[in-house]
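Field reference: sequence -> structure
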Amino acid sequence: MREGNVSARVEHRARPQRRHVRTALARHEGGYGEHRPLPNRPAVEPSPDPEPRTGRRILVVDDESSIRLVCTVNLGLAGFEVSEAADGSEALQLAEEDDFDLVLLDVMLPDLGGHEVARRLGARAPVAFLSARASQDDLRAGYEAGAVDYITKPFDPLELAERIEEILTRAARGESESFRRTRLAELE
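Structure field:
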């Protein structure tokens, strides 16, 4: 078998996942109408009972609607209950009205910066930054603002739920603060 055929086959195997995400996104937006099975895959009948929810609630705060949508769809498919906010003021209002297990927060927001939102949230909910700002100084500022983790954009939407699971597991064990201090020390 020629090497070119192998890479084409590997590339072909990776495509269905991406199509699946785009299909899920389109269905979420009402773009494609009824669900159509992906090519080369057997049709799966939907189960009469929806998957049980984890009960874990995530607040996604980003001024870009496309980022909020990708996070909401992928975390929702993983069983999280997801709420969205387009700016810092809305995030703070939602956090006052409801309890969240984690706030996934962009640094650059139109009204209040993400660092200020994280400081104002205090102990109400752990914060993980999701930002394109990825310099050592940006990471340090995020952890100093109280973040329990820092995810940089671009990120793999298919791995987002796993990363959130890891953050929540660490928080449940009481390891968030020690992780935050360790990351700060590494950035010094």
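Note: The first strand starts at residue 57 and ends at 61.
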